[in-house]
Structures are given as structure tokens and as C-alpha cells.
Amino acid sequence: MTLKAITRSVAIAALLGATALTMPAIAQAQSTITGGFDVGPGGFQGNFNPLAATGGLTWLSVYFEPLVIYNAELTALQGSLASEWTVSEDLREITFTLAEETWHDGEAFTSADVKFTLELAKNAATGSVFSARLNSISSIEAPDDRTVVLKLSAPDSGLLSTLSQVMILPQHALADIAPEAIATSTWWATSPIGTGPFKFTQYVTDQYVELAADEDYRLGRPVTDRVINRYFDNSAAAVSALRAGEIDFTYVESDDAKTFDGSADFRVIEGASFVVNYVGFNHMVDLWDDVRVRQAFMYAIDRDAIIESLYGGAATAANCGYIAPQLVPSDIEPYAYDPEKARALLAEAGWAEINGDKPITWLTYYNTPLAANVMAAAQAMLAQVGINVVPRVVDTPTYNGIVYKEGNPDWNAFPLVYAGLQNGPNPAGINVGLNESQLPPNGANIMRVQSRPLSAAFDAALGETDAAQADARWQNVCRVMNEELPWATMWVANRYGVASNDLVDFVWTPAPAGGPFASHPEKWAKSE
Questions:
Q1: In the chain, which residues have pLDDT < 50?
Q2: Which UniProt keywords apply (predicted)?
């Protein structure tokens, strides 16, 4: 590190004052990349447990790794802890050959760790968000240290995509913890060990997480000595820190992204989110029993106006869970803005007697200025047709605690949500939020959608073994969603990150749930 860089680090530390963010002098001499890696909708600030990760996988994958991972373009899967794999023609058996690697404590990584992890992930008692998604796995075999064989009870075209988010965990460190105690274990935030390029150093509560380079990483010792994940209350605070030179990267809202255009010091990273935003109807609440009420939402909200005025045109209206042309039939209902039609549908359904103008809580975990403006615009449009929604914003852990709660939950705590779920790169991604088989506590069907036609459409698409017929199967999923409206689908928007031009070989992709994707943190560097 140059004298100029060290001086700059000291100056920043002085500006921050005597806080936990002030690092020892010896640490300041090390190369360090600091980012707001859990800022924005792809993050999950404060979560260290990958089994419970509904986001934050960009950061978790810096020190944990899955068997397979998407490339940075999100177009294909490639090996991570699995050096190669084969899938049987009938899609009922997957064989993985494992890479040679050690855990951060020096213990060997073996097939026993993979078997242990997948069994934990399948066990709903662990709080795993993958339990129902891995239902098709009937057995996990580890015939030797470098081989894992998964046998499936039925073809599952989405399984490899799901496995790209399942971080492999160390059996020797976790085997003595009872499955029901895994979720609340202090291990995750105090002494976790993974196989990734960086290893856990410390967590300072609500401030930052620090990782150090793993000298023995199989792809080579990382170029950078330390990576730090700073926590922020919102994206605006992160942007301020970025401009002040305190961090090197963060997610930003579209309006903030524009302010960095043409900057000599920063570069804007833009890409499709692969996330469909939706107004979710809690199907345990009888307000939404009549499909005409759900249709009214679609006609009442001027999605094109919101996309143009608030997203700056960087979003595409969604009339089902997908926008990719090959997945969307040409003859589905476009739900063009028509408030008069919305009023007529509500009148036909007897909305005045069902609810009238009584306020309806509209829950979300999106806490950005953009989301607030979007919800305010939709709130005003819905009010014009006689639907009175009241936004309620909470953090992600609180949101998850509300919508996943089992055992006499208060359904009226979330009759309506504004949320997002991945709709790619594998179209099977939204199955977890809509199939009857994915009802909590096993899955993420938090709106408790119980539609036999829709579940059957998903099952047929997941079980299709003929690649030439796959798109037609997913088109049928789209068609059923468009007709039944389990959600009022809104749009798929672009997302933005901003990185300092000092960063070299830094890769970030606006992936659903934050990824993971092959970002190769071991190559990240900082020019001085």
C-alpha cells in the first residue's frame, strides 16, 4: 500500500472517530476492500446462516461455497465445490465429482460434508428455506470422499438451480448441534468456517463483518488481504459512504445511479434483476376470494406510468411471473390500465360489502425511497377505485418472522404484501412461492396459494425431460398465473451497483437473492 493510501485510511479513521470501525495500525497497512454488500433488495443484513438465506448470497458466497454456481452472466451453471457432474437421461440421478479443498480450519472437505449439508437443508426443523425445494431428493449417497450421488423420486429440472444456493457446511463443526438448534446457534456469527477464498475474522454487531484471505484457497491465495461488509440503514447512507471514500462498492437506487454517470471515480453496473415484483394476496384472508377483486388490482395500477416516471423506463411490465419472450404466450391478458374496469369488477364482486373503504395493511421489506414512491403511487391509484391500502415497512427479519409464522398466525398482519421473487435465470425459481407443495414451514409459498391448476402446471414443467418441450410447459405456468392471479404481478426492473474505479477484477451481478454467482473474490484487488 502506498503512503498516500495509508494516509487516506488514517484520515478516514479519524473522520469516523473512535468507533469499532477504527482498525489497528497493522491492519491499515493491509490491502482491504470494503463494500455495502448487503445493501438493497438482494441483501440480507445480519444473516449469517445460509440455510435461512432469502437474500445476501453475494456476501455469504465470499466465505461459503455451493456445489454448482451460475456464471456472472447468469446464463449457465458451472462447477464450484463440484468439479464436474452428470445427470441421467431420465433426470432421476445426479452424480457430482468434488474438488479437492480444505475447510478454513484445515480439515479436509469431503462428500460426507455434502451429504450432511443436504440432509440439514431438507430438514424443516433446521429452519431451512430449502426444505420443500429439495423434496425430490430421495437419497444422498457418498460412495467415496470425492463422489456424491443424488437419487430423485421424480424429475426436477429446477434442482441444480436450487443447489446453486445451498452453501456446503462442515459436518465436523456442526454435527453436534441438534437440528432444531441450528438456526439459533451463535456459531454462524462467531466462528463459522467455510471453503471460500476468505475466512471469517469478526462481526461487530450492526456495524460490519470482516473476512481475511485464506492462504490455502484451491484457486490461489486471494490478491486482497481483507474484505469488509459494512452495514447501512438504507441505500442513501451507503451512497454517502461511497462518495466519502469509506466503501468501494454498494447497491444504489436508479435515481442515485444516474448521478454517477460520467464520473471519473466510479463506474455504474446495471443489469436485469431477474426478480418479479408483485402485490401478493394472502389467500388465507377472504378479501381476495373473488378473482374479480384480484383483477381489479391489475387494472387499477398504471404500471406503465410507474415504470416510466419512477423507474426511468428501466423495467418491464409483467403479466405473469415471467417477461422472457419464450416463456410468455402471446394471447394472455395484458391488463392495460383501466380504472373504470377495475371499479366495475369491484362492484360486481360486491366489494362495498366485502370491505368497502376499510384500511388494508400492505406489508413490505423494501425500505428504499424508490419503493416508498412506488407504493405511494399505487396506493393513490387503488384509492381512486375504492381500495384503501396502508403501507407498512419492516426490515427483512421482521418480515420473514411475520409471513413464515406457523401456529395460529395473525393473517390480518399481512393481508397484502409488496415483494419480489426470482423469475430466472431458471424459470423454476418462482415455483417455491406458488406451488402448494411449497407451503410454510417447508417452502416459501408465504401467500398460501393453493391452486391445483397452477401447482399441476408447475409440476409438469419441473418434470419435463424433453428440452424441446420445456418452454411450452413454462408458458402454461404463465397462462395459469395470468388467469388465476395468485399475485398481481407488476414488473421486472433493472438493478444498479456502483463501484470505485480503484477496484480491479471486481465482479458484481444484480442477481436474485444476491446470487450466488461466480464473482471470483480471490481476484478482487484495489489499485493504489
A1: 1-28
A2: Signal, Transport
